Amino acid sequence: MNASGRKIPDRLRSPLERRLRSWESLLLLVAVAIFVANSLASPYFLDAWNLSDATFNFTEKAMIAFAMALLIISGEIDLSVAAIIALASTAMGAAVQFGVPTPGLVLVGLAVGLACGAFNGLLVTRVGLPSIVVTIGTLSLFRGISYIVLGDQAYRGYPPEFAFFGQGYVWWVISFELVMFAFLALAFGILLHRTNFGRAVYAIGNNATGALFSGIRVARVKFILFLLTGLMSGVAAICLTSRLGSTRPSIAFAWELEIVTMVVLGGVSILGGSGSIPGVVIAAIVMGLVTFGLGLLNVPGIVMSIVIGALLISVIALPRLWTGRRQS
Amino acid sequence: MRRIVASREMLLLVAIALLLGLVSTRFPGFVEPANLVAVFNDTSPLILLAIGQMVVILTKCIDLSVAANLALSGMVAAMTNLAVPDAPIVAILLVATGFGTILGMINGILVWKLDIPPIVVTLGTMTIFRGTIFLLTEGKWVNSHEMTHAFKAFPRTELLGLPVLGWVAVAVVVLFSVIMTRTTLGRAFYAVGGNPNAAAYVGIDVGRTKFWAFTISGGLAGLTGYLWVSRFAVAYVDIAGGFELDVVAACVIGGVSIMGGIGSVPGALLGALFLGVIKNALPVVNISPFWQLAISGGAIIIAVALNAQANRERGRIILKRAEHAA
């Protein structure tokens, strides 16, 4: 987006890696500070069940944020994720009306997510359109289809077993969603940091042409990333629909912005090429803690959004002020 | 001549005419002048914001905070009216536009001085602006009966059959047609987006130009904020929620390239009108308004696909024209 301000790493990876690490430790410090502040501010904060409830503030969004992180590192973005949730949820709701059992509903949710991801991916990699506009378009299109199907109605009547994904607990206060969050964090962490595919994602984000000439199938990697993001939106749709027990076309409205905020807060460069999954994990927890802690203090949601917005800007601005601004 | 016929603006004009023709077969009243004026008037806020957004997108940036800016400036205008009921409309206009301009400058400073990617800056300020409205009002609404008559009457006053709201849009379209084609700053917006490095070598301060783009977008959002609040005679936290996407959509449909450097005022105007006609036509032809979102989504995707085609050709045309000029 900003060709002149972009720094191209010209040294070995170790200093960069160290700086990345310090970013995550800074974030971790913020998380700990918020945790301590919260437990001092409200006597209800340090309660296992309350904390368990707090995790629902971020688990579903974080599932998508992991895939989004890879996508943004590769230099693309997907703003249609929340709309995919709406469409997948609507499809599951429609399937319920035909008496589809729980396993079938899960398949429907995942399939719709994949199909939407494939649609985005095709438009970006085959037709060669900029992803930010394509996904603003599909954002309207996917949610628009939900509105056409549902209008001002809602789908209800999900089977009782379906409630497990959003309301079930695996053990004591550990919810299914939290386990899913941990599992996906691990899976995406390994995918990005320990596989050839992950290295290819970084390479594409830093220099797509260079990556192409090094034998990386750039279009295919990007297509897979869009598929993954769609799939994760499907997974999130299953969890959210199960937790709410109903589907309205306005479900997960404007989540895409919170998810992008989470990814950027996690230290992923919006210009592509750098970032890590541990950073996104901590950012997700920070956002969850802020929302939950302020909620306990009766701070309205809209004020929390100010905090999140200010956090987003200052966390990016501070290191830039620190390191003596631009090189020019 | 061929360039004019094949241009995006002409294509859109034909599309809008076809749309109007289609609607008139089922409902002739829709294309009566009085109704067309009403449609234009209804689309005016979108036109105003789309022109500001176009300037920003030309410089390779994006302003996602316009709708939140509109809501906050509109609320400030409404609260000014509550506090000083005697204040003349000119003062209210200045307050709203000035306040919006300052909000735009905040975006611009963050992009210019700190070099933060615009999408991140405006994503952040978007939530901050909306949150600030809540802090100002504690979630209370400013309702119609609290506003003075003059405050509400201004955008509705009709001059030569068109309400002032529509005239403001006309004036801004004319003003920016001149600025974008006839002034140094206007050309700088194109240069910065078209090739930032070349622009820097020519002596254009890329960061400062982006700052002015955000300032313009903010000022127009502030102006629209007052017009919006007084037209609907209500101000609260969520007015124009999600409107920023409509604004970007109008630009993209109007042929403004998201990669920067390509776009025109008539394009943005027609892009906004295209969406406005669809919005107003749907209920008339008995299609549920719930279709609107999907239709504009489809329109965006088709438009951006067309843009990609046009951009490829555009590169050659510039070279050809440069050859002739030389």
Topology:
The complex is a heterodimer of chains A (328) and B (326).
Chain A: H1 13-41, H2 48-55, H3 59-73, H4 81-97, H5 102-125, H6 131-150, H7 164-167, E1 169-171, E2 174-175, H8 176-193, H9 196-206, H10 208-213, H11 218-244, H12 255-265, H13 277-296, H14 301-322
Antiparallel strand pairs in A: 1-2
Chain B: H1 2-6, H2 8-26, H3 33-58, H4 66-83, H5 89-113, H6 118-137, H7 149-153, E1 158-159, E2 162-163, H8 164-182, H9 184-194, H10 196-202, H11 206-232, H12 243-253, H13 265-284, H14 292-325
Antiparallel strand pairs in B: 1-2
* Coarse shape of chain B: globular
Distance between the termini of chain B: 21 Å
Widest β-sheet, arrangement of strands of chain A: 1-2
Q: What portion of the residues of chain B fall into strands of 2 or more residues?
A: under 5%
Biggest sheet of chain B, strands in spatial order? 1-2
What is the beta-strand fraction of chain A?
under 5%
Notes on the structure:
The complex is a heterodimer of chains A (328) and B (326). Chain A is an all-alpha fold and 328 residues long. Chain A has one domain: Orthogonal Bundle (ABC transporter involved in vitamin B12 uptake, BtuC), CATH 1.10.3470.10. Chain A contains 14 helices and two strands, in the order H-H-H-H-H-H-H-E-E-H-H-H-H-H-H-H. Chain A has helices spanning 13-41, 48-55, 59-73, 81-97, 102-125, 131-150, 164-167, 176-193, 196-206, 208-213, 218-244, 255-265, 277-296, 301-322, and strands at 169-171, 174-175. In chain A, strands 1-2 form a two-stranded antiparallel ribbon. In chain A, strand 1 and strand 2 (174-175) form a beta hairpin. Chain B is mainly α. Chain B has a domain at 47-241. A two-stranded antiparallel ribbon of chain B has the order 1-2. Residues 314-326 of chain B have low confidence and may be disordered. The interface between A and B is large, with 50 and 53 residues.
